[in-house]
Amino acid sequence: MAIFLLGIVACEVERYPYDSIVADKLDESGAGIEAATLGNYAMLKSWTDNWYRLVEYPGDNVALSGTTSDALFFNYNYQHIPNNYRVATYWQNSYQVIVGTNKIFDTFEEGVSEENDQLLGENYYLRAMTYFYLTNIFGRPYTQNPASLAVPLKLDADAKVFPERATVEAVYQQIEADLLKAETLMSSFKENVYASPEAAQALLSRVYLYMEDNQQALAYADKVLASTNVSLLPTETLASYPTIVPESNDETIFAIKFVKDADNLEWSSIGSMFANIQGVGWGEMYASQPYLDLVRQYPSDQRNGFIDPVYLLNDAGEKTLWALYVDNKYQYEWLPVEGAPGQYTYTDANGNIQKLGITMAADDTTYTIKLADNTRQEVELEYRMADRNGYPKYYITKCSGRKDRRSFGHRLFPGWQRCTSTVPKQMQS
Q1: Torsional sign, CA 394, 396, 400, 401
Q2: What's the fold here for domain 24-269?
Q3: Least confident stretch, 83-92, 189-198, 254-263, 276-285
Q4: How would you classify the pairing of strands 394-396 and 307-309?
Q5: Where in the chain is the domain with CATH 1.25.40.390?
């Protein structure tokens, strides 16, 4: 025992973690820059969920079915509260990524090797992307007032330095500079789960679009489209987009990769709020009526393939036709419809059978009913649906179904962002 204790006293004990690299030791390892870069990619996994909730839920494409106990409710209804953990976590995760990239810039120099430059470029892309979304969420639109305040512009890795908020213009200038440097440093398209010159060009196109520099936006979009590494999917394939593994999808420019057995791919995924598939998912956020009205203008619009209505069957196992509308209190209302096309009838508020009003147009047919005050109300003919709190369940599947993982889908980022925004019609050809 004495000899053993003497050995312990005489030896210097290494107290470094076995599964990560201490910052001070980062440049001593030949694989240091690669390991640290992979660490920055890994941090994006915790970043994506709250990022998505902050950018998609306040928009007009989705409708929450009443309420939820989750703090995302306050992102949805613009009721900002100081202790919203989703906002706080997103902020923290964002600056973890930024400081992680800054540490790499402080430690490694450009021009050492092509491999090093590629990894430096990937980190410049990650920092630019993170600042882009931070500024969009916490700052005003660039063209509204570039001199207004956005977010702190932290360009060092010192945890004790807390810069003041920078202007929207200053942050955009840094984003542009980072992306131009990333485009120059990166020389290869490894896989679309890593940053690439095309990813930098696609994000530059969007940055310039938001700045209303349309010529530059067009120029960088053309660069991406001219690349042999990415291409738009055929129109007939678009509806199955969420089921395609990102690395096998030529249209995906950049995606955050989640591993099947290592990451939570079910209840906490992006798609879990949009649908309940095979018993998995909250299924509380549905396609909104304005969005449905938009995509239904043209039956060939492939975005219709991302909507999955949950229909109820009658005792005979058949669907029942209903007239669906939104009243002046923004509540859904519906009533049964009977008969054949052109001869549809319904029972009004007074118990009288009325004929459904119909107006034919070149590319649209409008149906109306008469309300109790004798005004006409436009309705949508729809089969009776399951609902939650009175909201019909128009499940959204654009982020679900990859590898039969039910509510799991992948996270997509600029350019086209099939999983995060309305796809402009000109991109569907």
Answers
A1: positive
A2: 1.25.40
A3: 254-263
A4: antiparallel
A5: 24-269
